[in-house]
Amino acid sequence: MIDLKRISKWVNVGGKPNFILKDINLDIKEGEFVSIMGPSGSGKSSLLNIIGMLDDSSEGEYFFLGQGVHGLKEKQRSQLYKQYIGFVFQAYHLIDELTVYENIETPLIYQNIKGSERQAMVADILDRFQIVGKKDLFPTQLSGGQQQLVGIARALIGKPKLLLADEPTGNLNSRQGEEIMDLFKQLNNEGVTIIQVTHSEKNAAYGSRIINLLDGRIDNFN
Amino acid sequence: MNTLIKPALRQLKRYPVFSLINLGGLAIGIAASFILLVYTQRELSTDHHFRDADRIARIGTDFFQLGPFAFSQPMLRPLAIASCKDVEDATGFDTKSDPVRTNRQDRAFTGIISYLIDSSFFHVFSHEAAAGALPQNGLAPGQAILSASQAQKFFGGKQAVGQTIYVGKDLTPYTVVAVLKETFAKSTIDPQLLLPQPRRTAEETSSWWNVKTYNYVKLKPQGSLAGLNAWLERLRQKVVYPASGSTDTYAQWKTKGTSVFFYTEHLTDIYFHSNLKFDDNPGGNLTQVQLLSAISILLILLAIINYINLVTARSSIRAKEIGLKKTFGAPRRTLIAQLLKESLLFSTLAMLLSCGLIQVILFLYQYSTGAALTGPIPFLSANYLWLILFSVAIGLLAGIYPAIYLTGFRAGLTVRSTAGSGRNTPRLRNSLVTLQFAIAIGLLFVSLVVYSQLQYMKNKDKGFRSDGVILLQDVQALNNLDITRKFQTLRHLIDQQSQVTSTSLCAGAPTGSTLMRGSYRTAAMQKEVLLQTFPVDERYITTLGLHLTDGRNFDKNLLSDTNSLILNESAVAAMGLFKPIGALLNGSERVIGVVKDFNYTSLRDKIGPAVLRFSPQGNSILAIHIAGGHPAAFLDWLQQTEQNILPGENLETSFIDDNFGRLAAKEKLLGQAISFFTVLAILLATLGLIGLTLFTIERRTKEIGIRKVLGAGNGNILRLISGNFIRLALIASAIALPLSWWLIHRWLDNFAYRVTINAGLLLLTEGLILSIAFIVIGALTLRALAANPVKNLRTE
């Protein structure tokens, strides 16, 4: 599903390239549950952003479902991730001005799905995550765990093939974290490919494969 | 103080764009409204600067329904001084426009109005000298006084006092004894050159029908206008009535049109309220002053709204600081004082900036309109004290709401930095933005209507050809056959020019200042009517391009035509003629033609009746129509030829549309001022919009980023950001358009001929405002999107 070939990413600091990612080769099959681990600054989030097409690599090739992402225009790329990818963030990134219901609905609006259909889909997922009672609340009125639940619901509403999660439990207590990881496991069993960035060994263990990053390289000896 | 200024300046530095917009907006607002304030103040106090101005009054007169005139009989002055107990002193001056030379050989300066003054002029009108000494008891023969601007024009930087000037065609020498001091104050008494009044002739001191003197009296402190009027009424009965030789009783005579009337008015009322003929000064326009002062208030309102909006918009940033100080125990009063001081500091900075801006705006105004709104505002004058008070007031006004708003947050809430949750953007800010939009829309609409009315007046068919017609004044010399013959030669040469299509000798062109009444009656009429009359030759209709609709033109070969008349349509209607051609007026004068109505006053007034009377001899104005529209070459040729044939004669040339243009000058000034300050107002509103949009984007960067990740296109984001503003703009137009429509209709009602306001103008206004808003918001949003807001998500 995902095929990264010699991906590098650098930023220029004082005229010299400062490598964030160096020579990453990675192949992820459909249905995998991959955990990316590594110390702070090792390039985990950068790698996730490149996979999620939120950012460009400086060098290398990226094939998503067999299609070369590196050559695509912004618009086509956006079309691609709108359709196949869902994001979950550590800081939830819900829109404060919108209710729970509207937050979940937003991606569907941008996928040009009709109103009645949207209603059905949102109702469905609210039901599944058991947050129907919260649908008219604003994000600030929810606990962190509940907010992250909404964030995941929003990521899943478009029925993505790939779920990218950047430390999804980082702001949560351990009980809430466990619930979220159980949910991920369950989703993975239903066929959603998941890539998560995490600090926690315990969370990483939920996955089927662990990739260790160190200073922008994949650490094969670990 | 340091604890206040340093952080405040740091704020300015930290948010440069924001601060610049806020400061610039406030400074523009202060500068523009200050200028308008000075302007209206100067207009409203016209003539008030003379010593005892409230005791000065003017006497005008009227007879034969020709006037009422601003001037009156020369003999009123000695009579008033001698026998009116309310009068302390009186002065009468005649005006004339003579060529002036600084030496006998040089080219003359023309278009200079000189006042011929008597011994009381400076007793009534206090003046100061810039150089020399003012002869308080009048000029001796051969002495002259110049205004400062004329002195500069004649002698450059050189000392004018002691120099000799040569006035008139006969080059009478005068020695300059003083130069008048220029004042910033405006006056209807604005002499460029003062000359001594020559001895009055016998006719001038005996006839009640010889009027040309502007008579002003200074009333005694205990005197009154009513007293003056009572004296004038006695004068009519005891002196004027016997002199008229009328066979009526006094009671009958005094109300008749053929009687002599007097009109008195306070000097300070003349500028705005006088409506007498031959007022030398064009007079003020109260509507304009009112409109412009309204605009000045709107401008400052816009600036204050900008300030309030931008400051409260940034409240989430400031609120944290305020909240922290609160947790340290700062009382609310101290915090309010701090914020007020900040806004005062800010308005002071804006004021300093506006001192420079005032000059820039005055310059731009003059540059774009070609006319000065006020004179240069003298620096370090009382006006600038107003500026300081003004900015303090603005600082307090603009600061008070943000201060109360910001210090009202609960300390705990703001420190946690989750302020700005939920969907309620402050209702106040929305209403203020709506108000701003409404002001901009209203002003734009008003200035578009004023502009189209001016265009309409310019392009409206006046019933005669108004471009390409040159008027040559005074082309006759009554008692000098030689010169008269030379004039004929000149005219002959003019006729031969290929550019010239037609010339006509007449006694008056439709230039608004023509005044010649004749009385007419048909056999069926009880009383005669007085109608505007133009004595003309047979080429008048061709030269001026009047449209003959019925009958025929005058024929110089028909002896009977010396008793012929051509009427305009209004005159036909006024006389009640069903079959005008062939009708007899006054028993012997036959109507031989009818021309389409032509406008001989201004478009404010309905076209009046007019009569063309055949009078091939004795006319003093030569109207020349030239084809092709390049009059410069012709004028050069004319000047050359004139110098050759009639050396020493300076014939006054003017274009007929110039004359007509002067009539529209007042309206034109209004149009220019309104459009200029409307542009400023829109600029201010745009600045505010830029600030608010920047802020909105800043505040919503995270949201924009999230939405982008969720698949929003640039179009979606644009709609998101602009939606609220556009909605407010639409609400604003719903308020502003009907209101300004109603207002401008009241102004249009002043005109007999006016544009109809159509939907197109409304749409144009709406379209302009919406596109400005959309361009501003669009550009800023796209700029923000280009910076890739998704990156911001990662930095959190």
TrEMBL record, chain A:
Provide the coiled-coil residue spans.
none
Q: Domain ABC transporter, which positions?
A: 2-222
Keywords, alphabetical: ATP-binding, Nucleotide-binding, Transport
Q: Name one GO cellular component term.
A: membrane protein complex
Keyword presence, Aminoacyl-tRNA synthetase: no
| One Pfam family matching this protein | ABC_tran
Give the matching Gene3D superfamilies. Answer: P-loop containing nucleotide triphosphate hydrolases (3.40.50.300)
GO MF terms on file?
ATP binding; ATP hydrolysis activity; transmembrane transporter activity
Which PROSITE patterns is this protein grouped with?
ABC_TRANSPORTER_1, ABC_TRANSPORTER_2
Q: Which top-level group of life is the source organism from?
A: Bacteria
What family is this?
Answer: Belongs to the ABC transporter superfamily. Macrolide exporter (TC 3.A.1.122) family.
The protein in question is named: ABC transporter ATP-binding protein
Top-level taxonomy? Bacteria, Pseudomonadati, Bacteroidota, Chitinophagia, Chitinophagales
From TrEMBL, chain B:
Question: Which positions fall inside the MacB-like periplasmic core domain?
Answer: 19-234
Q: Does the keyword Membrane apply?
A: yes
Give the record's keywords alphabetically: Cell membrane, Membrane, Transmembrane, Transmembrane helix
Give the UniProt subcellular location, in the record's own words. Answer: Cell membrane
Bilayer topology reads:
Multi-pass membrane protein
Q: Where are the transmembrane segments?
A: 20-39, 291-310, 343-365, 385-409, 430-451, 673-697, 725-744, 764-786
Name the major location. membrane
Task: Give start and end of each ABC3 transporter permease C-terminal domain.
Answer: 294-407, 676-789
Recorded hits in PANTHER family, A to Z, give: ABC-TYPE MACROLIDE FAMILY EXPORT SYSTEM PERMEASE COMPONENT 2 (PTHR30572:SF18), MEMBRANE COMPONENT OF TRANSPORTER-RELATED (PTHR30572)
UniProt-recorded name of the protein: ABC transporter permease
Whose protein is this, by species? Puia dinghuensis
